Amino acid sequence: MKNAVVVVGTQWGDEGKGKITNYLSQKADVVVRYQGGDNAGHTIKFLGKTYALHVIPSGVFNPQIKNVLGNGVVLNPKTFLAEVKNLQAQGFSCNNLYISNRAHIIFDYHQALDGLIEEHLGVNKIGTTKKGIGPCYTDKIARQGIRVADFVSKDFEKIYRATLQIKNEQIKSYGGQMFDIDKSYQEYQIIADAIRPYVVDTVQLLNDEIKNNKKILFEGAQGALLDIDFGTYPFVTSSNPSGGGVSIGSGIGPTNIKDIIGIAKAYSTRVGSGAFPTEFDDEVAHYIRETAHEYGTTTKRPRRIGWLDGVILKYSAQINGLTGLSLMLLDVLAGLKTLKVCTAYMLDGQKITTVPARISDFERCVPLYEELPGFSEDISGIRNYDDLPVNAKKYIEFIEKLIGIEVVIVSVGPDAEQTIIRRPIM
Ligand code: GDP
Ligand code: IMO
Ligand code: MG
Asked: Which domains does the chain carry?
């Protein structure tokens, strides 16, 4: 029986994946991160408290749930241990965490290189989170990475010293500060010892869970438009957040997936550089940013604001294989007179409804909008779809028709309780 459900970002990240993963995890046995690293920042709110997670899956709060960092993840062990410590201080045991022996480790040298490469790019910089994500995945593909299994093995010292020597040369070539190899090794050896108890073969763990009919929830990080293959290249992250990444990043076959729920903001946001056709920056954008507190969970940067982009969502539905949409932050739009939805782009005098591959073409896309009447009522207390204001329902139904995907969840506030379920998931 197919039991796996995937939560995936449909835009440029920060859609509310943490909130929905945590919500759906009430019925899950296992929650899995399958890609990305501590570039992610997932906010979860329940029982009046707010938590921000970067590496640990959003099911950690329930001790009955196994929380897995799959092989597709890049793990900064320092961030992981700090997050564990922080959660333990708040009363969460963290005895329910499992790290794949095949995941790659982000070291300080990756982070240093991330910063140096961005500096080198100058005005063309990607606007990364400077967490070392790109350099770590680069090493993975170049077959020069250090995996968790190596990190916790007795060979680590030899591997690390040889690797850091090469990395120091790269750092020097960018004009950066080289690392003291002895000191760095000693620091990481202590960290490796602390990581070892969490390390397992998660491919076996997950496939055993599937065999035992357990419910597995996959928690995407970033979003489809940040996907290394399908996103707005080169202004993307270095992994595959989209649906196809689940299998590669966890070792379960794609045939085990039952539902892929696309998380979509009722408008759009983006942090970092790169084209964003529906972006606007007036008093309405300012109102949205302040109302929703649109500042990065990881980097604190103000998020860029745009109208909902139907071209992007349709594309996202295709590449992710969406079976449902979860429409987030609808409450934020209350009070706006008009709601705009982009239905097509004009590119050099031609109307298109697809996402161009070249960033220079995407930069020239001018959105064509459909305007819908807004709603003025505060909807944050509503729990039944039928109780939503007529114009809010019209907005949702317009999106469903445009994208061809059912809106199965409507989120009307950051708290787990502020969720309207139209079709039960899991
Ligand atoms: P993620 O990276 O996809 O998990 O999203 P983030 O946590 O980075 O950003 C989403 C932000 O929106 C967080 O501050 C959430 O607490 C908040 N949020 C999520 N859903 C809702 C909602 O329906 N309404 C409001 N007002 N805030 C929400
Ligand atoms: P969550 O999981 C939003 C963006 C960065 C930058 C680009 C590349 O919270 O949705 P990277 O550090 O990955 O090399 O940066 O990707 N980015 C995110 N934007 N939410 C995220 O994660 C992001 N993770 C990376 O801002 O534009
Ligand atoms: Mg986020």
From this structure: 4-100+199-259 (3.40.440.10), 104-195 (1.10.300.10), 264-421 (3.90.170.10)
Residue 384: Cβ within 10 Å count = 9
Give CA angle at 388 (386, 392), nearest 5°. 120
Instruction: Please identify which residue in the block is written with the tokens 């408290």.
Output: 49
pTM flag (> 0.90): yes
Which residues are catalytic, by number?
14, 42
**Ligand 1 center–CA 272 separation, angstroms:** 18
Tell me how crowded residue 261 is: count the other CB atoms within 10 A of its CB.
29
Structure confidence at residue 296 as a pLDDT band (50, 70, 90): confident
Which is nearest to 21 in space by CA: 292, 216, 268, 210? 216
For residue 15, give the ligand 1 atom closest to its CA. Answer: 3
Contacts with 401 (C-beta within 8 Å, 6 or more apart), sequence order:
none
Distance, CA 344 to ligand 1 centroid (Å)?
A: 27
Mean pLDDT of the chain: 97
296, 14 Cβ separation under 8 angstroms: yes
CA dihedral 18, 20, 24, 26 (to 10 degrees): 60
Percentage of residues in the chain having pLDDT higher than 70 = 100
Query: Can you give the pLDDT at residue 321?
Result: 98
The answer to whether the CB of 106 is under 6 A from ligand 2 is no
Structure confidence by residue, pLDDT tens digits, 52-67: 999 999 999 999 999 9
Asked whether 324 and 259 are in contact (CB, 8 A), the reply is yes
What's the CA gap between 234 and 236, in Å, rounded? 5
Is 343:309 a contact under the CB 8 Å cutoff?
no
Select from 218, 237, 301 the residue to mutate for testing ligand 2; criterion: most ligand atoms less than 8 Å from CB: 237
Beta bridge partners of 270: 304
Residues enclosing ligand 1, CB less than 6 A? Answer: 9, 13-19, 41-43, 45, 292, 297, 328-329, 331-332, 411-414
Using the mean position of ligand 2's atoms as its centre, give its distance from the Cα of residue 36 in Å. 9
The residues with which 394 forms a beta bridge, in sequence order, are none
Cα 101 versus chain centre, distance = 22
Cα distance between residue 392 and residue 56, in whole Å = 34
User: Residue with the nearest Cα to atom 9 of ligand 1?
Assistant: 14
Long-range interactions of 161-170: CB distance < 8 A, separation 24+: 161/185, 164/107, 164/109, 167/107, 167/109, 167/113, 168/109, 170/113
Amino acid at site 424: P
- Angstrom distances, CA of residue 12 to CA of 17, 40, 89, 131, 421: 12, 12, 32, 17, 24
